[in-house]
Amino acid sequence: MKHIRNFSIIAHIDHGKSTLADRFIQYCGGLSDREMDAQVLDSMDIERERGITIKAQTAALRYKARDGQVYNLNLIDTPGHVDFSYEVSRSLSACEGALLVVDASQGVEAQTVANCYTALDLGVEVVPVLNKIDLPAAEPERVCEEIEDIIGIEATDAVRASAKSGIGIEDILETVVQKIPAPEGNPDGPLKALIVDSWFDNYVGVVMLVRVVDGVLRPKDKILFMSTQAQHLCEQVGVFTPKSESRTELRAGEVGFIIAGIKELKSAKVGDTLTLVNNPASEALPGFKEAKSQVFAGLYPVESHDYDALRDALEKLQLNDAALNFEPEVSQALGFGFRCGFLGLLHLEIVQERLEREYDMDLITTAPTVVYEVVMKDGEQIEVENPSKLPDLGKIQEIREPIITSTILVPQDYVGAVMTLCNQKRGVQRNMQYMGRQVMLTYDMPMNEVVMDFFDKLKSTSRGYASLDYEFKEFQPSDLVKLDIMVNGEKVDALSLIVHRSTSVYRGRELASKMRELIPRQMFDIAVQATIGSHIIARETIKALRKNVLAKCYGGDITRKKKLLEKQKAGKKRMKQVGNVEIPQAAFLAILQVS
Ligand code: GDP
Ligand code: MG
């Protein structure tokens, strides 16, 4: 165990985590150059294109250190987006150390801080690394100071590196060996292995990534899941180099995979502890909080006969994404579809994209919403994750909305603009701290406002410099109303929204006018109205592309003219019914374009 180091890389998005991980693999000879195409750890196509890491992956590396000894370095990659901070803490639970990578041309950003604190809270040794020193804009000295000022860890000795040009890679590995403690644990004790991640593989079924804390695990061992008491036969154990390689055993201190003929991801819950049926541990390791859906949206097939295919696709995606939830939903306007729960907006976008790309689905997605707690006058409490399902306001005692605590790091020049934005979004300032050239702002904000467009606005008001991290705080009573959209006098349920009363009229007007731009003109006038309860707060008309039906008439045959006009009216009616379906996708997301 003296020669094992388990570590993760943590960073703000784009600071170079994945590039650095690839360098380590290359340096330690895990893959040939040919196999090193682009970024190996980010294996999914979408990850590669978007340049983000969705699922944590791992690589066991062999490194010959300057002391002449060979060390087994287990690298556990972590995702770096705010939606997935939950997975960051999961990966860190399997490690004794973390490399904190900071882009030397950008400096400390919100998730640098958040991830670092997660690591420190878990008692993990944090080793700072300054990356991208090849860039002319790199300011390693200033960024060192920032790490010390803002995060409060020593950074003078931080390795200066460039993952891109390969500078400092060996220095980092050497620091890992020296600064990060070897794992502790009892190889002779009863088996305790923490499930860090699990996923579904088409050939072998469920694969579990585990950190063995105590004991030894071998193929043919009978394993016991401590939370469910389910028993399975261990078929194969091994490590990723990052290619999978079978081993004869996994010992205390090691990280590796287990295959045990499990068919359902549900049975291999992340955070559960594995032990042996014959010599069970007396208590389980501390697990993780379950990931809870924060953002909901309706997904509907454009063609109603694709409903079954959409369900199949969602089921398949869920095999690999335990954080994705869905249940059937019926909309008057959109027909049969699914209400889906996501960790955040990015998660929603990724799922939507995978459905469209990998499963060839044409989808209508409704505007994302958060979940509300509603207390009824009769005392019943319900959760509302679809605005059109909000009960009659007359029957409601109180609506509570989710509040998040957001931490924003922004250069001083943009503080004023960012504060104005936070106020517009009903934020309540909790703290403001000057830290070198940057300011750290802490605001409590309704999550609903953040889901809408806060992140984009934050970036545009700060020329891209502000960064954001947030976590759920609590549900708070709030003065909320339901905003409905009527198209030609009919309420379109899929367009309903829950908004704060103070911004409801403004939003209603803006939304109606956006709809006018987005819904194509048809053969008749289309009235778009925004209503709150029985009040109409805005009205727009999409003018008809009028075909002059009377031009076909000759003479003054009144009845003929009447008949034609009648026919056109009937057309209007028919269109009104299918009119809902003809509303383009963009219109369902129009609220995202309204501030
Ligand atoms: P991650 O989001 O932290 O995983 O970041 P990536 O590893 O995906 O890197 C983000 C971007 O920064 C990519 O375009 C990389 O090519 C680039 N990058 C990473 N490391 C360096 C570096 O040392 N120097 C320069 N110039 N670019 C880098
Ligand atoms: Mg990455």
UniProtKB/TrEMBL annotation:
| Family matches, as InterPro entries | EF-4, EFG_III/V, EFG_V-like, EFTu-like_2, G_TR_CS, LepA_C_sf, LepA_CTD, LepA_IV
Q: Does the keyword Phosphoprotein apply?
A: no
Annotated GTP binding lies at D14, H15, G16, K17, S18, T19, N131, K132, I133, D134
Subcellular localization, as worded in the UniProt entry: Cell membrane
The catalysed reaction is: GTP + H2O = GDP + phosphate + H(+)
Q: Which CDD domains match?
A: EF4_III, LepA, lepA_C
Q: Which key words are in the record?
A: Cell inner membrane, Cell membrane, GTP-binding, Hydrolase, Membrane, Nucleotide-binding, Protein biosynthesis
Keyword hit for Nucleotide-binding: yes
* UniProt topology in membrane: Peripheral membrane protein
The similarity comment for this entry is: Belongs to the GTP-binding elongation factor family. LepA subfamily.
State its role: Required for accurate and efficient protein synthesis under certain stress conditions. May act as a fidelity factor of the translation reaction, by catalyzing a one-codon backward translocation of tRNAs on improperly translocated ribosomes. Back-translocation proceeds from a post-translocation (POST) complex to a pre-translocation (PRE) complex, thus giving elongation factor G a second chance to translocate the tRNAs correctly. Binds to ribosomes in a GTP-dependent manner.
Q: What is this protein called?
A: Elongation factor 4
